[in-house]
Amino acid sequence: MDSSIPWPSSFRQHHHTEKHQQLPTSSLSMSNDTVIGSSPSNMFYFTQISDLHISKYRFRGHTLHFLHFVQSVLPMIKPRFVVVTGDLTDAKDVRRVTSQQYQEEWQVYRQTIEQGAPAMPWYDMRGNHDCFDLPSWQSHVNFYRTHGKSADLVATGQGIYSWQVKESFGNYQFVAIDACPKRGPSRPFNFFGYLTSKTMDRLASALKPAFNHTFVFSHYPTTTMVFGVSSEGLGFRDLAKQYSVYFCGHLHRLAAGLGDVLKWYDPKGESLELELGDMMVHGMYRIVAVDHDLISFVDVELPRKQLAPHPVIPLTPAGNIIWPAAIKPAPIVLITNPKDARFAIPTKEPLHRIQSSSHIRFLVFTSSGDDHDDGDLGDGGGNNNVTVHISIDGVPHPHAATQASDTLWTAPWDPTTLDPRRTHKIQIQVTTSDGQTGSSSIVFRLDNQRVNIKGGPGEFIISSNMAIVLQGFTLFGIAAMLTALIVPKFYDRSRFMQLVQRIHQHPESTSAWHVWVARLLAMPHEQRWCWFATVLFLLALLTLPWFRAEFIPSGTLPHERYGTFYLWGLRFAHEWVPIADTWMFAAGQVWLDVAVFFLIFCWRAAEDACLGVGSPKQATKRPVHEQAWFRGIVVIYWLWRVSELVALGSFYGGIKTLLVYNLLVFWLIFVGYMLCWGKGGIFLAPRQLPVMCPICGRENTNMLLKAGGGPSASETAVAAVTAAIEFSEESSGSTSSTPFNGSPRTKNRKRAFKMTGFIALTNSSMSQVSASTHTSHSEPIEGSNEVSRAEGNPPQSLALDEQAVADEQDQLTLRALVSTKEAGVIIGKGGKNVGDLRDSTGVKAGVSKVVPGVHDRVLTVTGSLDNVAKAYAFITRTLIDNPLGPATPPTTPGTAASHDDITTTTTTTSTTTTTTLRLLISHNLMGTVIGRQGAKIKHIQDTSGVRMTASKVLLPQSTERVVEIKGTVDAIQTAIREIGQCLLEDKERAYGTILYNPTKATNTATSLQDQQQASRRVSTSSILRTGNGSDFAAAIATNGFGNRSSLSSLSGGSSTGVPRRSSLSALNNANLRTQHISIPSDMVGCIIGKGGNKIAEIRRLSGSRISIAKMPHDESGERMFTIQGTAESNERALYLLYGQLENEKERRLRGVLPPPTDGQQDALVLEVEDVGQPTPAAL
Questions:
Q1: Which listed residue, of 181, 428, 485, 590, carries a Cα 20 to 30 Å from 764's Cα?
Q2: Spans of biased composition, class Low complexity (predicted)?
Q3: For residue 353, what are the CA distances in angstroms to 360, 399, 594?
């Protein structure tokens, strides 16, 4: 091809106007009654191309497509002018990783225009690729300033320039916008454009309503723009009312067909926005025609299959373009009348002219006339051999088309024959003499109405504001996670436990919503480090700089090269660059780096077994997040996120520059550590199966029910959680707590108990759980045990009211010992008495199951203080009204025969009726009930008129003691209210209580055979219990903690009398269990003993392997004890450990409290033994 292409001499020169130039207002030359006929007048057309991406490294597309467009397409179309909407060059390296401006690419662009279309009016503007790695407009690497065709206009107009087309039939304005960042970072943070407020003022000045139509061109669609507000308060949508069409590029038709129709109608601005596909890959260009002020367009692709490979840099040493072989595109058809109703602008186009038009009009562009030397086709040129077929609504048009000019064809028609209320379709097909075919079809209406574009996702994308969407998406993610983290912090643990109870009670109606709410409630308590780290990181993302990097490597000075990344934009020295790329990057980080790991942490916060997750077949399987395949996915995902951060370093200054001062690096390091060594960490020893509920110590109750565990198993778990909730509610409002060693602690203990794994024995709530979930199950108070057996039903686990557990902070649980016969009286025939009790007091009550050979059962009453007092008065009255026959009263467990006066008795005379109750009080709370120097117990007796006696010894395998109350019904009610008030006021001192559970015990085991038989009598249930000591009563002496001289006494015999258990054989047992408990660091020494003799003795007596952490596991200062063995041996070990702790605590108390005076009563002596913690004065 010659170095220059001849162009028609009739091309008129266009008038360039700066932004401030005022143009005279011109009225339409065509009157409203102008008829669209066959005349070629009243029409002009132009061409738009976009996203050339001229590259020095790409063989296909890119430069080759641009050369073919200039060489083969432009001579065929002969437009009035060409507009290039940005991305003139590619500016990427050979690997498409980094970016910089290459002068060779700009030389190819400039020389192609000058040699291929020297006479063609050409307007261009920059795209984001044209300002990659660009410090400023004056930079030496700003090659657009020296090679761009419209660079001077852009510089003069400071980003806004315009030109006009003036014809006899009207005046038309064209405005170009350069929206590139003033400082152009390297990729990838250079996707969005923006217009400052000053640029908006210049744009508002350029958009004057003095033209038939105004057309705006920019590289960026409005969805990828950030707009300021003009000094008059006008936004871009307000200015859109001043133009008819907004032409743009940039999105390259997206991917997977999402951007095939990136076009939409703006109802607010009453204008069109038309994105054009790229020249780089798709070889697309657009022809726009204005015919009688009706705007029509067609998007066309190059025949890419005809294109042969070509040199990447098609320049000779002399600077001449090496043109590829010419191609012959297929005919192009553009229908101008009727107008396509999908792109109609009713308020800015004279659509009524379609109804009164006399001819169908369309443009036909073919390559058959290229042989004419003058480049202009005559009326009898090569187009005489063109065949045209027209059909409307599938019916062939009766009139033949004729050629009105080089490109314009017309055909007569009568639009009045068509229904104006319908949408019609016209199709025109053109065939050249060489067999090439081109066609076009549109839909139109005759009632001036629009038709929906139906662009699918592409229309939605281009009509949205991507910057606003990304901001909302990012801020929503941060706000949602902060809400999910902070709101549960305002609720104590009782809310979590209430939800767990609901899940246990109603597993069939449990949804994923309940499960995840429970996990979120558990997060602040069970994943404290993760909770604090996530909250702080999210707040840092909002307020602090994320990282500092070398965003513009081509800058000569440090402040030009280095910038700081904020969520809200980039900052270079003292200049703020408000690009929306920061929001796009932040959205990915917030959802992929924070939200995903936040959900994993929440998942680990609560056990699946406790939340009823899984099926019966999964009862003995690990939760999903503990399975190897899931952990592998988590590791791969974490590595992927790390690799993305490393890749970011390769874009901006290397790993050293980017990764040193980077919040994301610290976050991912923390996440990696918690994934490996946090709760449920990858490198932690796997837990023993089946996985237990950490709240109730049971397996998934839903699983047990489905697997045939029966109602006993289910109600046992429900009762356990209920008891835990009740205690949690009582203790949630406390402002101080007492550690296990009894020393004062001012720290507010919001959690009702501390757990690690599934063991939680360090407070009274878990002791209540262990008592209610023990093998000595409770039965429903609605009927006696005999009734349950008569009906053939298994004994129920605990008698509970059907109503949900109340959440009042003054809930009191008070237990008492009753005989088996008294329990029957309390229940009543058919549960009548307990029904009356429930109706009249509103409490929840339960009686433990009958144990053969044991005469005592435990009565538990839960409710408000007044209701509990009324309930015990009701029970006392019931016992008086139903006196039992003469019988030898049972002996209180753990006491000698001389303590028969503690047994409940009823004495009836002619003047008064009294009875005796045996309350169970934690030894830690005995000091509270007795008071200083016996003042409290004396006050209770004087106020109520009862007689109170406290037992001197602990009940077997527990830390509870018996307080006997004898008096009338009213006196007992008053005393119960006073005692309950004491317990509520000092409820934190119940921390560490082991509840008493009646069971048949063997006090001595004189031979190895007896001990083995006793061991076999220990429960071998597969359900792991929390171990309150009563399960192994057959193997351990029942003398309680009254004699604490040695571990041998705790274990029920001499050190030589207990068979030594082989740790190796125990560890090879298939029923091995692993348990974890936390013990204060200052108490560890008393457990280890001198030279390790005490811990060795505990290991020998229990048969479990016990290991002790060298350092505290959290800020509480407590050290982790890991116990591994069978369920029996682990419970024995726990009992021995806590017994040793009690010995040490009492030893310390005896060393700090003053000795009793000679005149004190027995109760006062008990005060010194039973006080749970010394007062500051005593210390």
A1: 485
A2: 893-909
A3: 12, 20, 59
pLDDT at 1093 over 90: no
| 350 and 487 belong to one structural domain | no
Q: What is the pLDDT of residue 1018?
A: 35
Contact of 981 with 925, CB cutoff 8 Å: no
Distance in angstroms (rounded) separating the CA atoms of residues 1066 and 1128: 11
Most confident by average pLDDT, 154-168, 606-620, 776-790: 154-168
Strand partners, 913: 908
pLDDT score for 389: 96
- Say whether both 459 and 470 belong to one domain: no
pLDDT tens column, 524-549: 888 889 999 999 999 999 999 999 99
Separation between Cα atoms, residue 243 and residue 822, nearest integer Å:
94
Amino acid at 229: V
What CATH number does the domain containing 339 carry? Answer: 2.60.40.10
| Distance, CA of 875 to CA of 860 (rounded, Å) | 12
> Is residue 820 domain-shared with residue 923, that is, in the same domain?
yes
Pair 1071, 1127: CB distance under 8 Å: yes
Average pLDDT score, the chain? 76
Torsions phi, psi for 72 (to 5 deg): -110, -30
458 and 477 housed in the same domain? no
| CATH code: domain of residue 981 | 3.30.310.210
Amino acid at 38: S
Whether residue 660 is contained in a domain is answered as yes
| Nearest one of 781, 740, 747, 745 to 764, comparing CA atoms | 740
Q: How are strands ordered across the β-sheet holding 359-365?
A: 332-337, 359-365, 408-412, 402-403
Q: How many domains does the chain have?
A: 4
C-beta of residue 1101 within 8 angstroms of C-beta of residue 1140: no
Contact 565, 547 (CB under 8 A): yes
Q: Could you say which of 959, 974, 990 is where a domain stops?
A: 990
Q: How far is CA 992 from CA 760, 766, 960, in A?
A: 10, 9, 11
Give the structural domain span for 1079: 1072-1148
Contact (CB, 8 A) for 216 and 177: yes
Report the Cα 566 to chain-centroid distance in Å: 22
Distance, in Å, from the CA atom of 452 to the CA atom of 274, rounded to the nearest integer, reads 14
Is residue 830 included in any domain, yes or no? yes
Indicate the SS3 state at residue 1041: coil
From the number of C-beta atoms within 10 Å of its C-beta (0-12, 13-18, 19+), residue 157 rates as: buried
Radius of gyration of the chain measured on its C-alpha atoms: 44
Among 250-259, 303-312, 907-916, the minimum mean pLDDT is found in 907-916
Q: Which of 624, 654, 677 is the last residue of a domain?
A: 677
1112 cis-preceded (ω within 30 degrees of 0)? no
Give the separation between CA 375 and CA 1005, rounded to whole angstroms: 120
Of the two residues 45 and 800, the one the predictor is more confident about is 45
Classify residue 758: in a domain, yes or no.
no
pLDDT at 614 over 80: no
Distance, CA of 1024 to CA of 716 (rounded, Å): 13
406 and 358 fall within a common domain: yes
* Structure token pair of residue 797: 């686990």
> Are the C-beta atoms of 310 and 67 separated by less than 8 Å?
yes
Residues 346 and 469 in one domain: no
Q: Are residues 486 and 443 in the same domain?
A: no
pLDDT value at residue 308: 82
Answer whether 119's CB lies under 8 Å from 7's CB: yes
Looking at the chain, how many residues does it have? 1179
Do 514 and 459 sit in the same domain of this protein?
A: no
**Model confidence band, residue 994 (pLDDT cutoffs 50, 70, 90):** confident
**pLDDT the model gives residue 335:** 97
Q: How confident is the model at residue 992 (pLDDT cuts 50, 70, 90)?
A: low
Whether 960 and 922 have beta carbons less than 8 Å apart is answered as: yes
Q: What is the pLDDT of residues 282-333, one digit of tens each?
A: 999 999 999 999 999 999 999 988 888 888 888 899 889 999 988 999 999 9
Task: Evaluate whether residue 839 is within a structural domain.
Answer: yes
